[in-house]
Specification:
DNA-binding; Rossmann fold; 45% helix; two-stranded antiparallel sheet; 9 strands; Arc Repressor Mutant, subunit A; homodimer; globular; 7-stranded mixed β-sheet; alpha/beta
DNA sequence: CTTTTATCGATATCGTTTTATCAATTATAC
DNA sequence: GTATAATTGATAAAACGATATCGATAAAAG
């Protein structure tokens, strides 16, 4: 299957397709058209067609659409949801603890196996390791994914430790732009950025009404 | 100030600038150049210059840069961080509770004043209201922002209730595309989408090494 | 006062993503 | 078997965002 060469934007839409396809699998009669998916998810039809064609092994059939089973399998393959990825989390503050207690990650293929903070402790019944043990544990467990939930000031230094020890993908919740070596991906999950967009929209909507 | 007509991407970068500018306000000597900010945040210089020029009242001064005070004020204005926005949260499952217990939102101008779920209860010492009271409370408190943390299946129906009652901005954590009336903004914060990007990157990096 | 130089602002170029268009294909109906 | 209609796949156009280039400006230095 074509795993590489999928645009980031397409990749971000795949979970939406998957969710819809799985929850409607039975009633779709085996095939579904790009137009139907687009209408359901409120997306552009051509965009959906291109996305689906990218991930689906089999071609779409005129007058019928794409075979739902192949679509689901193709998307799952691209997302790697069949093999759970082990990850570590650095920063056991408020947000870090909240994420640790969130049970929904495994469903998406992420398994947080260890958490770290400045000093040892426990949170939600899970052991928090001292930062000094970071390098050791990453390399021994051969971890490739890390979640960063430390304050912005320390994000880069934590990031440096991580990449030096072979981390390839970082899910960054700190409000800081991280510099990483080539080949390492940073996915920023900045609550503040999202709130920025929301809040600005709200403000201009309110202004309109004055 | 120019609140409307700011691109979404610029808007998402504003919190980064703000964070950097505030934490370096004293040592910057009053003025800072776009190049300096760009270097610190690992961004393109021209991009930063354009962004800063968009939000700053005063023009940048050759050989000096932008006046930091004006920058901070301009960004805060755009983000509406001076007036905390009251919000409600619907869905007190794992993720919802995690967000409720997260103390960092007010810092960014969001204040969750009430939470709702199918049935009443308490979480983290906060009262959870029954969904039936949603309409009433939204209109009485004149809430304009809502956070959705319900399962994908019920996201659209919750969303409909919200928009019917005057909600203008929705922060959607459910893996579902929401259809909203014109003028309502949905900001998707899909963990699954982010994980999709991370996981796919990891997969293709690992494939390279084989 | 003049020269130098850092910085901005504007314009142009480039690449990516989205959207539009249309011919090719094939199931379905007659 | 032929016509019809839905749907795809491919190509083109448009929109958007990021980056490069360069002249204009004003502070600083001589």
């Amino acid at each position: 299957m074509k795993i590489q060469g999928i645009s980031t934007q397409t990749l971000r839409r795949l979970p939406y397709y998957l969710n819809y396809l799985v929850s409607n699998e039975t009633e779709s009669g085996g095939y579904i058209s790009a137009a139907a998916v687009a209408a359901a998810l409120n997306l552009n039809e051509v965009q959906v067609r291109k996305d689906l064609a990218t991930v689906c092994q089999t071609r779409g059939v005129p007058k019928k659409g794409f075979f739902v089973g192949d679509l689901i399998e193709g998307i799952r393959d691209c997302l790697g949801q069949n093999n759970v990825n082990d990850a570590i989390l650095v920063g056991a503050g408020n947000l870090g603890r909240a994420l640790l207690s969130y049970k929904g990650f495994e469903q998406y293929g992420l398994n947080i196996v260890a958490a770290f903070d400045l000093k040892e402790g426990t949170a939600n019944g899970k052991k928090i390791f001292a930062l000094s043990k970071l390098s050791d544990i990453i390399s021994r467990l051969n971890i490739k994914i890390a979640v960063i939930t430390v304050p912005a000031e320390s994000a880069q230094s934590v990031c440096d430790i991580l990449t030096r020890n072979g981390i390839l993908a970082i899910w960054n919740f700190a409000p800081a732009h991280l510099k990483v070596p080539y080949g390492v991906l940073v996915q920023n999950e900045n609550m503040a950025s999202s709130l920025a967009v929301l809040s600005n929209h709200l403000k201009s909507e309110m202004d309109k009404k004055l």
